[in-house]
Amino acid sequence: MIQHRCRHCQAPLEQEVIDLGHQPPSNAYLTAEQLLQPEITYPLKVSVCTSCWLVQLPAHAAATQLFTPDYAYFSSTSTSWCAHAERFVAAACERLGLGVETLVVELASNDGYLLQYVQERGIPCLGIEPTAATAEAARQKGIATIERFFGVSLAEELASEGRRADLIVANNVLAHVPVRRQSG
Q1: pTM of the full predicted structure?
Q2: Taking a C-beta distance cutoff of 8 angstroms, is the pair 130, 138 a contact?
Q3: pLDDT, tens digit (0-9, with 9 covering 90-100), for 137-160
Q4: Residue 134: CB partners within 8 Å, gap ≥ 6?
Q5: pLDDT (tens digit, 9 = 90+) per residue, 30-82?
Q6: I need a labelling partner for 49 at 20 to 30 A (CA). Which of 69, 90, 104, 150 fits?
Q7: Could you state, in order of their start, the residue ranges of all structural domains in the chain?
Q8: Which CATH superfamily is domain 75-176 in?
Q9: Alpha-carbon torsion angle 78, 146, 56, 45, nearest 10
């Protein structure tokens, strides 16, 4: 039996909350041809770490399997989420003194649902979004968007170009980031 470990503190994951069986990735819509083929599914067992209390899925799919070119979720379809983003931007601008001399970067910026409010204030911003359709929707709003996954390589590229953020936003991101084991 595989011993899963907490994605945060590395303690053994021993407390299962619910087992929903095997499920396909969310937003993984099938074409007519794919309906005749086996569908990829993943175990959807929710566990809680009894050391740090993080609720999590012990197994996860690779980001490239979840965030495909035909990724279908557009954040702007949720008016309540956009209203929250607008309030967040107002509070962040006030608290951090963001203005035309600063840079706001959002990781997994989707269709520009948050950065549109940064842009409205005349504050330079940059979206990092790996899915093609949502990145294009952000560009249609005039939001500069890099269509890649964020990682060390991209961070180093941006820093070498002098593009250093005063605020980095990463909503709904960390749950999708696999833990990297440090060796030695």
Answers
A1: 0.78
A2: no
A3: 999 999 999 999 999 999 999 999
A4: 71, 73, 74, 75, 109, 110, 111
A5: 889 989 999 888 888 899 999 999 888 866 677 777 777 777 789 999 999 99
A6: 150
A7: 15-61, 75-176
A8: Vaccinia Virus protein VP39 (3.40.50.150)
A9: 80
